[in-house]
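Before going further, learn to read the protein records used in this course. A complete example follows; check for yourself that the lines match position by position.
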Amino acid sequence: MNPKASLIIGILCIAFSPIFVKLSGAPPLTSGFYRLFIAWLCLAPYCIIKGKLRIGRKELLIALIGGIVFASDIAVWNISLAKISATVSTLLANLAPVWVGLLSYILFKKLSGRLFWIGTFVAIIGMVILVGYQQILHLQFNVGILLALLASFFYGIYIMITRGILQKIDTATFMFYNMLAGSVFLLLINIGQHNEMLDFPLSGWLCLLGMGIICQLTGWLTINHSLRFLESTKVSIALLSQTVIAGFLAIWLLHEKLELKEIIGSAIVLGGIAITFLKRDNPNKIVN
C-alpha cells in the first residue's frame, strides 16, 4: 500500500476510538480489554500460520512491558472519556511527546532543542485556557482532565520503552506479544473489579468489534506500515489530525458541544504539540 494512503487510513481508523468507547455502553476497562483482545484474536492466526512468533528474549520483554503500559494508557483514557468530552480527552491524550521530551531530559540529560521547549510552553498556555486559570489557582481540576493527562503520560512511557524495536522485529510479531500482554493485564483487572464482560446489546458488541478491528488492528498496522517509509516527524504531526477528526465525529455522532475557551485552548495545545515535533536543535546533545 502507498505509505501516505496507509497513514491516512490509519488516522481515520484511530479517530473513531473515542466514539466507539462512548457508544459501546461498556465499562471503560472492559472496552479497553476488548479493543486489545479482539485485535489480538484477528492477528494471532496470521502470526501462527506465517511463523511470526519467534522473538528474542530482550525484544519479548520490551513487547510485554510495553503492552502493559499501553493497556494502562487505554484504560485510563477510556475512563476519562466517561467524564469529559471526546474532543478534549483525545487532545490531552496526545500530549505524549511533551512527556517524552521532559523525561528524556530528566532521566538521560538529553536536550530536546529550543523548538521543543517553545512548543511545550505554548501547550501549557493552551492547557491553562482549556482548564481555566481560576481552577488552576485553586487546584480545582476536573478528574477527567487529570485522567487524560495521565493517559498521555503512560503513552509517553510506552514510546520510550518501545522506541526502535520495530527496526529489530516484524511489526506483526511485536503487536502479537504486545497486545497479548495488554489483554491479559486488563482481563485480570476487570475480573478483580467484577466488571460486566458479556451482557451487552448488539450495538455495544458492534462498537467493541469496531474498536478492536478498525481502531486497534487496522489503525496501528497501517500507521506502523507508513512509519517504514515516511519520516517519523511527519507521521507524528499528521497523527495530530486525529484530534480534529475525532472532534467533528463527536459533534456529529455524539452531539457534543464545546465552550469557546475549550475551542481556543484546544487549538493552542494542538499547535504547541505540533511545534515539539519540528526539527530539533542538536537532538543528541548530552548535558555533562
Residues 281-288 have pLDDT under 50 and may be disordered. The chain has one domain: 3-276. The chain is about 75% helix and 0% strand. Residues 3-276 form one domain.
